[in-house]
Amino acid sequence: MLNLSHNNLSGFTPTSFEGMNGLSYVDISYNDLEGPPPNSSGFWNALSEALQVNKGLCGNIEAQKSCKHNSKKDRKVIFVILFPLLGALVLLLAFFMFAFLIARRKKNQTLEQNDDMLEEISFSILDFDGKTIGSLATTLSNDHEAKELGWSKRVNIVKDLANALSDMHHNCLPPIVHRDISSKNVLLDSEYEACVSDFGTAKFKNPESTNWTVTVELAYTMEVTETCDGYSFGVVTLEIIIGRHPGDVFSSLSSGASPSSSSTSPAPEMSILDVLDQCISPPSKREAEEVVSLVKIAFASLNPSPQCRPTMEKVSQLLSSTQRLHLSKPLHMTTFGELLALDGFTT
């Protein structure tokens, strides 16, 4: 016999009573116990007085109500299980909503509205496997280093730049407009392969600026499109061919242009050979055809009308193909007027 009455016991009756086979009678009255009693003869044989005044005892024993499955314990268990699940579901929905808003913002927001984003974007066209030897501007301004840039290397640098801009304009969503393409922002590795650098905000100058890499429409209207990079590409291409920034020779190159000219036209009688970089030997016949093809494309990119400039995708395709301009006479006898009058490319 076990008498536990009047002990202020609470909670569920211990299941350890089930192992007490010799227990014949239990008195747990006047406590605060709840739930079904253990499966023990001492409880099944107990009188109602031995079980009275307990707030939650239940089961098929003397004068006790039957147990319900929706007890507080069950509700607590359900709450403990469901609350974390509901919390995780809410967090998951919040994450997807956040991701959706970010994706929508990136889709609708142009590069000009979020310049800071460019500093965090990594492009394959920015990666170097070799050692960087410096910028294109630094290389061209150094006589010794410039002599290492033969015509084939210069042609390849132009192709690298065209391919990079084509990827930015046509293979990125939204399209990336660099806005500050110049020889200072073209880096060369030890193999003289070029890549585009410095994706910071373009440095705009006033309309009287002598920085020829800033387009006329950008200087006056501040309107930025892919054609601005195309114009700058034309300037950098000429700089590679001339060996110095073309700003100081543009006035002479443009002296023969008429107001109705569809492109920036050089003096027609000027020999192409006279303008090429003099620190390296004149190009061979094959190299000369590639060089004049670059000159032709460069001046097309400098067209005063942005709508008439070739896209960088078109330029990249032209330079990647075997097409080039065919010269009917030696380079030293070919003038700019004759070059600009040529139509189409030959294979």
What is this structure's SSE topology?
Layout: E1 2-3, E2 10-12, E3 26-27, E4 32-35, H1 41-44, E5 56-57, H2 72-108, E6 132-135, H3 136-141, H4 143-147, H5 151-170, E7 186-189, E8 194-196, H6 216-221, H7 226-242, H8 247-253, H9 272-275, H10 285-301, H11 312-320, H12 336-341
Parallel strand pairs: 1-3, 2-4, 4-5
Antiparallel strand pairs: 6-7, 7-8
Task: Considering the chains and any ligands shown, give keywords for the structure.
347 residues; mainly alpha; Transferase(Phosphotransferase), domain 1; 3 domains; three-stranded parallel beta sheet; three-stranded antiparallel beta sheet; 8 strands; 7% strand; rod-shaped
Task: Summarize this structure briefly.
With 347 residues, the protein is mainly alpha-helical.
CATH topology of the largest domain: Transferase(Phosphotransferase), domain 1
Any idea how many domains? 3
What is the CATH-assigned architecture of the largest domain? Orthogonal Bundle
- What is the CATH superfamily classification of the largest domain? Transferase(Phosphotransferase) domain 1
**What count of helical segments does DSSP give?**
12
CATH class of the largest domain: Mainly Alpha
- Placed side by side, the strands forming the largest sheet appear as 2-4-5
SSE-based structural type? mainly alpha
Q: Give a quick account of the main beta sheet: strands, pairing sense, barrel closure.
A: 3 strands, parallel
Helix content: 25-40%
Low-confidence stretches: 110-127, 201-214, 253-264
Our measurement of the CA-to-CA distance between the termini, rounded to an integer number of angstroms, reads 112 Å
Mean pLDDT: 75
Rg value: 42 Å
Oligomer: single chain
What sort of overall outline do the alpha carbons produce when their principal axes are compared?
rod-shaped
Strand-residue proportion: 5-15%
